[in-house]
Automatic annotation (TrEMBL):
GO BP field: C4-dicarboxylate transport
Pfam families xrefs: DctQ
Species of the source: Donghicola tyrosinivorans
Cellular component GO terms held in the UniProt record: plasma membrane
Protein name in the entry: TRAP transporter small permease protein
Subunit description: The complex comprises the extracytoplasmic solute receptor protein and the two transmembrane proteins.
Domain of life: Bacteria
């Protein structure tokens, strides 16, 4: 198993854990509120922060699998060379945006580390730092793709996925 696939599996496992955590804590809170006139004070805050992490970790996995929103109408009309150029330009733009996310997170980290969550008291940097994690993950994926494009090692299946052509469309 490649390092990339292993990292993806770990992120997917963390996403599943966060989703299960959210369901359990919110369900337990509902049962306690309506059944026992009690509740878990941290449930709203922790489930909200888990959802933020789940969303940004999901963005990494989505980007790796080329399942993000993509404008395929024009790219699908190009041949291999045109697709390579578009994919290369796209990866460059994505790398710039992802680097901006990482740099912004690093600049805001000291401020967010001093701010505390209202109920739990955890530093807000624990919540906001997922932006840097997401940006770094997406940057690395885009960089690997760009290197593959520039060295001619990009697979036809990756190029087809970028152009919005997948197996389900071929069988229709």
């Amino acid at each position: 198993m490649s390092v990339s696939r292993l990292c993806t599996r770990l992120i997917e496992a963390l996403i599943v854990f966060l989703l299960v955590f959210m369901v359990v804590i919110v369900f337990a809170n509902v049962v306690l509120r309506y059944g026992f006139n009690s509740g878990i004070h941290l449930s709203d805050e922790l489930s909200r922060y888990a959802f933020v992490w789940l969303t940004f970790l999901g963005a990494i996995v989505t980007f790796r699998e080329n399942a993000h929103v993509n404008i395929e109408t024009l790219v699908s009309r190009f041949g291999r060379r045109g697709r390579l150029v578009c994919m290369g330009l796209t990866q460059g733009v994505v790398m710039i945006c992802a680097a901006a996310m990482v740099m912004g997170t690093l600049r805001l980290h000291p401020l967010n580390a001093t701010m505390k969550a209202t109920v739990s008291g955890i530093p807000m940097s624990w919540v906001s730092d997922v932006l840097g994690v997401c940006g770094a993950g997406i940057f690395l994926i885009a960089a690997v793709r760009l290197v593959a494009i520039l060295t001619g090692r990009i697979s036809q299946s990756e190029l087809d996925a970028f152009a919005g052509q997948n197996l389900s469309e071929d069988h229709q």
